[in-house]
Design brief:
46% of the residues lie in helices and 16% in strands. The chain has helices at 9-18, 44-50, 60-66, 80-94, 144-157, 174-177, 191-205, 209-225, 229-247, 299-311, 332-343, 355-393, 449-469, 474-481, 503-515, 550-584, 591-601, 604-609, 612-616, 623-633, 635-650, and strands spanning 24-29, 35-41, 71-76, 110-113, 122-125, 136-138, 251-252, 260-267, 271-280, 283-293, 322-325, 348-350, 401-410, 413-423, 426-427, 433-436, 496-500, 524-527, 534-535. Strands 13, 14, 15, 16, 17, 18 and 19 form a 7-stranded mixed beta sheet that branches. A 6-stranded mixed beta sheet has the order 7-10-9-8-11-12. Helix 4 (80-94) crosses helix 11 (332-343), helix 8 runs antiparallel to helix 9 (229-247) and helix 13 (449-469) packs parallel to helix 15. The model is unreliable at 247-253 and 482-488 (pLDDT under 50).
Length: 651
């Protein structure tokens, strides 16, 4: 495996000399050839060299990235403007890990239209990345309730697919009969016509409702001239629906002649809240919210990076002719030139200080300050909960990483366990883990939560037990693990371990930790369900606490999240087992063909309703096997065929 450039000074210096002092983009890759970062610069050599000077000038995130760089590529451009456009395209298509300035913390929802599909879907999502470059995201939206109501009305106004998967394999459902769906599942509408419908829907979320009204009015008049009054009435209903759709989301603002976006930011030493107001024809049609890490960043640079990332993700028609910003951007002329190229028309980026435009900036800034205040209040509440938990458990410092564990099964069948992690009082879902209980003693008809919990503790901490047995200093390792630059894998030591259960589960866990010789190193507690009581090892009575105090509430949130995660995994395992058991009874169907059938038909019900010819179209299913599958689900048809055959032979 290739070593990082930091460990090869001669190779690093040679590589830096090969980079020309010209404008362009640089791409940094790791040992597995994964793209870590894409950047642009007016002078490539100087910019790339700055990463490998004193690490004190770099943020922890960038220092972590530099330690992983094994190769540097570059693309030379004719101008800095071209480099900006190229950087935006590369980031949008490649999604490098260290390029994300805006936090993807699942706080704000987006609306997605999957233009990459033959019949696009439209849905709400909180994950914007790792989809096809052809798909489009509209947002993020601050008010998810309003977004859901808007999408609901859109699906009533326009004939759109209502289900992610067909309800029936060979016929349409009720939505087609009542005109809510154009029959996508049975391809009653062509892909081109359905794309045309979605383009009208996209205009609503692009803030182009007035333009859509004009388009529909013209279409309605054409239908009326042809005496096609039924189609004209359908267009009229769509126009009324659009009026209802936009009535509760728009407020009038001065200067109705110009469409513009207005951006402002409110920030403290660590966090920035950015608001983007979308004004179209003098009306506020959308309010987008962003969150950013503000450490060592100026407000103008934060706004510039938000503009770069936001407008690189939208269609050209969504870029207004005027963008107002609260602070001067570091590269404001360059940004204006880039937006003009994107829109293919002139775009002005202005930093107003007088009259109506400055009043708009103040309006957006007040909204950003409210968002920042909410974020601060949330952080303060989490800090108070951590401090209260530290006092409750008599810890020297507030816990940063807390882990919760739970078991889920039905009388021992499909037994699973969950591990959830809260960091600084917030769920850290990237650290969640799921376990299948491996003990042969736990099976259908025989459950043992104590044994299951002890097994999970052994599996979770055996790595740490092995390190301790080799003579390592756990205190020193834990101190190093708090750094984001730790690269040896020992970075998941919890400050507190919480078990869902009472004294019995806690005793089983401590016995398992004694076997690992970690019982004196870990802080372990349990939370009983009935009275929300907190127990510590070796204590006969629960701790003196109130169910509504902040520390106990934090443990309760952790416990509920562990329970939810465990139950979800259990239901998934149980559902897969039930699917496998029904199909595995069919002769000639092995595990691979079962998976292929489920992937092709999406559900057991669809397989059951499919004809022999439709089953034959699935991968790996011959005509003879297709008939066997059909006969398994419909034995009466087999009996009827036998009767008919016997009658023909008698005749």
């Amino acid at each position: 495996m290739q070593r990082p450039l930091l460990e090869q000074p001669e190779r690093l210096e040679q590589r830096l000399k090969e980079i020309p002092p010209e404008p362009g983009c640089y791409l940094m890759r790791d040992a597995d050839d994964r793209l870590l970062y894409v950047g642009k610069s007016k002078t490539l050599r100087s910019r790339v060299r700055s990463y490998f000077r004193s690490s004190h000038d770099l943020s922890p995130r960038i220092r972590l990235m530099v330690r992983q760089i094994c190769e540097i590529e570059f693309i030379v451009t004719d101008s800095e403007a071209e480099a900006l456009a190229l950087e935006s395209n590369l980031i949008k298509n490649q999604q490098p890990h260290f390029n994300v300035l805006l936090k993807d913390d699942k706080k704000y929802p987006y609306l997605c239209i999957t233009w990459s599909e033959t019949y696009p879907r439209i849905f709400i999502t909180r994950r914007r990345r790792f989809r096809s470059p052809l798909d489009r995201f509209y947002g993020p939206y601050v008010d998810v309730g309003l977004l859901r109501r808007t999408l609901f009305l859109v699906k009533r106004v326009f004939p759109l697919r209502q289900r992610p998967r067909p309800l029936y394999p060979n016929r349409t459902c009720l939505n087609y009969s009542i005109g809510r769906c154009p029959g996508v599942c049975q391809e009653k509408v062509s892909s081109e016509d359905y794309h045309q419908i979605l383009r009208k829907v996209a205009m609503v979320f692009q803030g182009r409702s007035d333009e859509l009204r004009q388009l529909l009015n013209q279409q309605m008049e054409r239908y009326a001239e042809r005496l096609d009054f039924e189609s004209a009435a359908g267009i009229r209903d769509q126009l009324q629906g659009i009026d209802q759709l936009t009535a509760d989301q728009k407020m009038s603002l001065p200067d109705a002649s110009v469409s513009r976006d207005v951006l402002a930011v409110a920030q403290d030493d660590h966090f920035a809240a950015i608001q983007l107001f979308q004004m179209r024809a003098g009306k506020l049609v959308g309010r987008l919210g962003f969150a950013a890490d503000a450490t060592d960043l100026q407000a103008g640079l934060i706004l510039q990076r938000v503009i770069e990332e936001h407008y690189s993700q939208v269609d050209a028609v969504e870029i207004p002719p005027e963008v107002l910003v609260q602070h001067q951007l570091p590269q404001q002329p360059l940004i204006a030139e880039w937006l003009s190229e994107q829109r293919e028309r002139k775009v002005q980026v202005l930093h107003p200080k007088r009259r109506q435009k400055a009043d708009l900036i103040d309006l957006v800034m007040r909204n950003a300050e409210f968002e920042l205040g909410r974020a601060r209040q949330s952080q303060e509440q989490q800090a108070l909960a951590n401090e209260d938990l530290a006092q409750l458990l008599e810890l020297a410092t507030p816990p940063r990483r807390i882990e919760g564990y739970d078991i889920s099964h039905i009388q021992g069948s499909d037994a699973v366990a969950s591990q959830v992690v809260f960091i600084d009082g917030l769920p850290a879902k990237q650290h969640y883990r799921r376990y299948k209980i491996q003990s042969s003693s736990i099976q259908a008809g025989h459950s043992d939560d104590f044994m299951a919990m002890a097994e999970i503790m052994r599996r979770r901490f055996r790595k740490w037990a092995r390190v301790k047995a080799e003579g390592a200093d756990l205190v020193e390792i834990r101190r190093q693990s708090s750094s984001s630059l730790n690269m040896d894998g020992l970075h998941d030591w919890p400050d507190v371990v919480m078990i869902d259960g009472g004294k019995g589960q806690l005793s089983a866990v401590m016995e398992a930790l004694r076997e690992l010789d970690l019982h004196e190193d870990l802080v372990v507690c349990s939370l009983a369900k009935q009275r929300e009581e907190v127990f510590l090892p070796e204590a006969k009575q629960p701790l003196e606490s109130e169910p509504d105090q902040l520390g106990v509430a934090l443990l309760r949130r952790l416990r509920d999240e562990a329970h939810r995660f465990a139950v979800t995994f259990h239901r998934q395992q149980r559902g897969q087992r039930m699917k496998r058991s029904r199909l595995s009874d069919i002769p000639g169907l092995g595990p691979k063909r079962v998976r292929d059938l489920l992937a092709h038909f999406q559900s057991i019900d669809a397989i059951q309703l499919a004809s022999a010819d439709q089953l034959h179209q699935a991968p790996g299913v011959g005509l003879s096997l297709a008939k066997q599958i059909r006969a398994y689900f419909h034995p009466q048809e087999e009996d009827e065929n036998k009767v008919i055959t016997a009658g023909e032979e008698t005749a």
